[in-house]
Specification:
Oligomer: single chain
CATH superfamily of the largest domain: TolB, C-terminal domain
Shape: elongated
Largest sheet: 5 strands, antiparallel
Number of helices: 11
Helix content: 25-40%
Structural class: alpha+beta
């Protein structure tokens, strides 16, 4: 939008000068003005401005020279000077040409001074010879300025904190990405080119740096050596579990267009050699700035390809396996507009997205917005994050931590280390996503303690939908699984040679401060006598009817037995000690039988199954506490043959 309006203003200014002729009779001033025009035609804006300034020194009433100086300053990004010269042109114009008020209004609007802009807009309206012919877009700009004044009169109470010398430098730092546990930060640094820079036209080179957080302190940044090349790398994202990174690389020999998306996988402390995401993700058009969905497989990214709503739009694809992606789809309105939408970040709560737009109603050229993905797959109307998160300048690259209370972004505010620095601030409560906690630990063989690669699935028990999936590191066994804090979840860890691990998280109300779960998981080999507690099999109180939420867990048992056709199991039912022994014995037997019946209906031969109720005879915890009694009320299966 700003480029279009600037071009319009330049055209109008030239037309205005031509229509009015030269208002100065000072020969020296006219001479400098003509030199300024010639320099402008040669696209030497600095020289043009210098000559225009000489002209107004010779003749302080030279309207055309003021206008030309204002335009030169505008195109060089010199807001204060441009506004000043537009005002001087109005003051020098004895004929009070009405369009000059519009020029001044627009520039004050662009420079973050909406109150002065409104004053000039209103004067433009008053002086216009045909008020009914005023363009609707101009009146809309006036109303937008009034809206901005309202926003600025009610600023958000936030404080920006520079991330310090371990992160920032005299170069530019931007586009941060952070793991869910906030243990690692990866970001883009733009540094001056050197002798090895491959881009022949580039004056700088973009590379990745990372920092690890230890004891609450970010450590000195390090060069991400096995990802960086002598081309430009930037615009990266990390999957919620920290295992995958997708980033942007431009002008590479194997590329499909100007900028493509690449992917890499972390194994231990190293990242694999990056690979081009290929078709259909990459095209001959511009693809950049990816962000992972909460499931670790959905990827949102920016593309300028045709078929969207506007210029640069947010698109979505799915990684069905390493390096294999589905045909991208445009996420459409109300997020995408006729203008550019860029720098999207999808929070691991699975529904909240932050993005930058040039097309939605905002404080300036580019503002940060947030939206929410509804359960029916539609998007909430985007909301501007407000002032001073958004200002008249361009804001971009905002990410939010898993807990939802802290945001990171880049800014060139005064007092930093140089140019763009990375900052963080406490996110106001009304702008926060649903908080996310996580389960973090290590998975290993129960016998020899060797690390294992296991697949994790977090399942919404009410819908049966997979919320996220991940794998533990094959080298270290480490894993991290994000858990949104507003539903009931089942978690399964699976390795085909072992019994699966089962856990549930009953986080049914939204919390603002949830401690992460730290747990090391020992997987048992498939041997006779080994057992698994089915923590996601549920019954109503004092009843033996399986609840619908049990289906996910029981289907996991079915899959295990089909993968191991010689396996036979006993289904055991257990209770706490509340009630009589006879009652508990009967209830536990009926519940075990309910599971037995489900498995048979799912295709498991009855000859492979037995069931037994143990009542309160085999507690695994203290019955004197509610927590202990809950552990004793359980269903488990034990291998009797394999």
């Amino acid at each position: 939008m700003k480029r279009i309006l600037s071009a319009i203003i330049l055209f109008l200014c030239i037309a205005t000068v031509g229509a009015q002729g030269e208002s100065s009779s000072n020969a020296a001033a006219v001479k400098y003005f003509k030199k300024a025009q010639k320099a402008l035609q040669s696209k030497d804006l600095q020289l043009s401005l210098s000559y225009a300034e000489m002209a107004v020194k010779k003749d302080p009433h030279y309207v055309e020279a003021y206008l030309l100086a204002a335009e030169d300053a505008l195109f060089m990004g010199m807001c204060e000077k441009s506004c000043y010269y537009y005002t001087q042109a109005i003051n020098a114009d004895t004929k009070h040409y009405y369009k000059h008020y519009y020029f001044a209004a627009y520039q004050y609007m662009k420079c973050g001074k909406p109150d002065t802009a409104v004053m000039y807009f209103e004067e433009y309206f008053r002086r216009h010879p045909n008020p009914s012919g005023i363009a609707a877009a101009v009146r809309n700009d006036n109303e937008l300025c009034k809206w901005r004044i309202e926003q600025m009169s009610h600023p958000l109470d936030i404080s920006l904190h520079n991330m310090g010398a371990n992160i920032n430098s005299e170069w530019e730092e931007y586009l941060p990405a952070i793991t869910a546990d906030e243990s690692m930060l990866i970001y883009t640094v733009q540094r001056p080119r050197d002798k090895q820079t491959r881009c022949p036209r580039c004056l700088s080179e973009e590379d990745f740096y990372y920092s690890k957080q230890q004891n609450g302190e970010w450590q000195p940044r390090e060069f991400l050596s096995n990802i960086n090349t002598h081309f430009n790398e930037g615009g990266q994202c990390i999957s919620p579990d920290g295992k995958y990174m997708i980033f942007t690389a431009c002008d590479r020999d194997e590329g499909f267009g100007s900028c493509d998306l690449y992917w890499s996988k972390r194994i231990g402390d190293n990242w694999s050699k990056p690979k081009n995401c290929g078709k259909p993700v990459n095209t001959k058009y511009w693809e950049s700035q990816p962000t992972f969905g909460a499931d670790g497989r959905t990827i949102y990214f920016i593309s300028a390809r045709p078929g969207g709503v506007g210029k640069k739009d947010i698109w979505r694809t799915y990684m069905v396996e390493d390096g294999v992606f589905t045909e991208p789809e445009n996420i459409g309105k109300p997020i995408n507009t006729m203008e550019d939408e860029v720098s999207a970040y999808f929070h691991p709560d699975g529904k909240t997205m932050y993005f930058v737009s040039y097309g939605h109603k905002g404080m300036g050229d580019a503002d940060i917005f947030y939206t929410v993905l509804n359960e029916d797959g539609t998007w909430m109307e985007p909301v501007n994050m407000g002032y001073p998160i958004n200002t008249y300048a361009e804001e971009f690259s905002l990410v939010v931590n898993a807990a939802g209370d802290k945001a990171y972004f880049s800014s060139d505010k005064e007092g930093g280390y140089g140019n763009l620095d990375l900052y963080w601030f406490e996110l106001p409560k009304h702008l926060r996503p649903s908080p996310v906690t996580y389960l973090k630990g290590r998975i290993f063989d129960a016998e020899d303690k060797s690390p294992l690669a296991a697949k994790f699935e977090l399942v919404d028990l009410k819908t049966g939908n997979i919320v996220t999936c991940s794998t533990s590191d094959p080298v270290t066994g480490e894993f991290l699984v994000c858990i949104p804090t507003d539903k009931l979840y089942a978690l399964n860890a699976v390795n085909e040679k072992y019994l699966f691990y089962s856990e549930n998280f009953q986080i049914e109300s939204i919390h603002t401060n949830v401690e992460p779960y730290q747990k090391d998981i020992a997987l048992k080999r498939i041997n006779i006598g080994e057992s698994v507690v089915l923590k996601n099999v549920f019954f109503d109180t004092d009843k033996s009817t399986l609840k619908e939420e049990s289906q996910t867990e029981l289907d996991r048992v079915v899959a295990l037995m089909k993968e191991n056709p010689r396996m036979k199991v006993e289904i055991g039912g257990h209770t706490d000690n509340v009630g009589t022994e006879e009652y508990n014995q009967k209830l536990s037997s009926e519940r075990a039988k309910a599971v037995y019946t489900y498995l048979i209906k799912a295709g498991i031969e009855a000859s492979r199954l037995t069931y037994k109720g143990y009542g309160e005879t085999k507690p695994i915890a203290d019955n004197d506490t509610e927590e202990g009694r809950a552990q004793n009320r359980r269903t488990e299966f034990t291998i009797t043959a394999c």
